[in-house]
Amino acid sequence: MKTRWKRWADRLFGHKYYAVIVGEAGSDRYDLASQIHPTAASAAAHRARIMQTRAYVYITTITFRTHKNLLP
Known about the structure:
Blueprint: H1 4-13, E1 15-24, E2 30-37, H2 40-51, E3 56-66
Antiparallel strand pairs: 1-2, 1-3
């Protein structure tokens, strides 16, 4: 359950999302992983799964904010 402060901050600044950037092993190609995560814990779990593969290399996790459309 969101607090009143959190709801106000989300409306003013936008909701924070997380994305994982990965690189293909053995190449210089970088891509956004297939999911956008609503929490840092979810992004960390995805990073842990990526670290277990040999096809991809974890590069970084980025954050961004987005606003809901305030018009009806």
